[in-house]
Specification:
globular, alpha+beta, single chain
């Protein structure tokens, strides 16, 4: 398996002991996406919970598609990204949006499908390469 090309859904969320620790205001999140990314579209969607569905593209052409919600734990979900692509978004979220860099926990769709409920902790420091390595390590552990 080539982990550089492995695409999956990433769930990013606040720590269980501080579920609202991101102070995630959906309107502010949409405005922050607008300010940070080359092309952005988003809309609020009411279902079981209020969430902000978004689509954003970097100047380098990396596409982020997902949603953010602040019901339960503050959460952002990214669909169909490689570890390297997701690392770009995570670095922005951690370094430019969250009130503290040590507040990101994460998992992936394969972990959820296997019933693995462990909260993985994103490092509070490091560049996109180190974030991508953390995501790859997670995938290696989950996929066996």
């Amino acid at each position: 398996m080539d982990l550089d090309d492995y695409q999956t859904t990433y769930l990013l969320y606040a720590p269980a002991k501080n579920p609202a620790g991101w102070n995630l205001d959906l309107a502010a999140f949409g405005a922050a996406l607008d300010a940070a990314f080359h092309d952005v579209r988003y809309e609020s969607e009411q279902g079981r919970q209020l969430r902000l569905c978004f689509w954003a593209v970097t100047e380098d052409g990396i596409v982020f598609d997902g949603f953010a919600t602040n019901e339960g734990r503050d959460t952002v979900l990214l669909t169909d990204n490689t570890p390297g692509e997701a690392a770009v978004f995570i670095a922005w979220l951690r370094d430019s949006f969250l009130p503290s860099p040590d507040l990101i926990r994460f998992t992936t769709e394969p972990a959820v499908e296997r019933g693995i409920e462990t909260d993985w902790r994103m490092p509070a420091t490091g560049d996109t390469a180190s974030i991508a390595e953390e995501l790859k390590h997670h995938i290696q552990v989950v996929e066996g």
